[in-house]
Design goal:
Elements (H helix, E strand, L loop, with lengths): L8 H6 L20 H21 L4 H13 L3 H14 L4 H17 L3 H14 L4 H13 L3 H18 L13 H18 L1
Helix pairs in contact: 2-3, 3-4, 4-5, 5-6, 5-7, 6-7, 7-8, 7-9, 8-9
């Protein structure tokens, strides 16, 4: 279903079938391209999503994907507005809602609004407690808010989940976080906490 970032869940439900958890991992590498190819792809996606929104103006999933696309087009304010509207539509699946909240955390953090970034990361983790990307965002938000002890604990949890998952995301739309990013944050939190004590 959908012209961009197609989903099969609605078709599975329409056929009366169930979706089950699996150890199968699908890695999406469609954006491991040159900047120019990504820009062209994002512009193509933008055009298709705008057409879709004319037919379904309150489809949260389309607004979420529009927000992702606007992010790829380096339009963070518009991306944030689109993703917030996606959430307001009230019809996102749990995994997409969690991913939307994590994206809002990333956007707020990039804009140095760390309290807001922390709040959105925690919102994502309410639904997906093992969401490594959201844990990493939460830990860095805590670090930049100078909550070093909490940041250290969150980085340690993220490290533990990374080890358990063997580096492969397990949440629906998790983003693979390199281990060195987690380790760097953990060391920063420990160092800054030690300076305070």
């Amino acid at each position: 279903l959908g012209k961009v970032h197609e989903q099969i869940s609605q078709s599975i439900k329409a056929l009366g079938k169930d979706m089950l958890s699996s150890d199968l991992v699908i890695e999406h590498l469609g954006y491991n391209q040159s900047i120019e190819i990504i820009r062209k792809k994002a512009q193509r996606n933008y055009d298709m999503l705008m057409q879709q929104l004319k037919q379904a103006p309150t489809d949260g999933y389309i607004w979420f994907q529009l927000g992702q696309t606007l992010g790829h087009l380096k339009l963070p304010k518009q991306a944030e507005e689109s993703i917030k509207f996606a959430i307001q539509c009230g019809n996102l699946s749990d995994s997409i809602y969690s991913s939307a909240a994590a994206t809002l955390s990333q956007l707020a953090g990039n804009d140095k609004r760390f309290a807001e970034a922390l709040s959105w990361a925690e919102e994502a983790l309410k639904i997906s407690p093992d969401f490594l990307y959201a844990l990493n965002l939460k830990a860095y938000s805590q670090l930049y808010l100078k909550n070093f002890t909490e940041a250290e604990a969150t980085f340690r949890l993220a490290y533990s989940i990374y080890e358990t998952q063997q580096g492969i995301p397990k949440s629906g739309f998790d983003i693979k976080v390199p281990l060195d990013i987690i380790e760097k944050g953990l060391l920063m939190a420990i160092e800054k906490d030690n300076k305070l004590n």
